[in-house]
Design a protein that fits this description.
Elements: E1 4-10, E2 18-19, H1 27-40, E3 46-52, E4 58-61, E5 64-67
Antiparallel strand pairs: 1-2, 1-3, 4-5
Length: 68
Amino acid sequence: MFNSWKPVVTTDDSGKWYDNALRFATQKEAQDNARDLSMRWFAVRSHSAMPDESAPNYRYEAGELIEL
């Protein structure tokens, strides 16, 4: 069972998704963060949010990361 959502991006045609250590309580927070990340990274081809077993460690509100 998952406890959090992680933002993920893909940067090539391999189909591999990449994530960082950010974990959010909601899918919307993770999707918003992934979208914002894709705007800053040149090589991002797609972004999404995936469930994760880790506990949430951040909130994402109004474009700001808030550590829990």
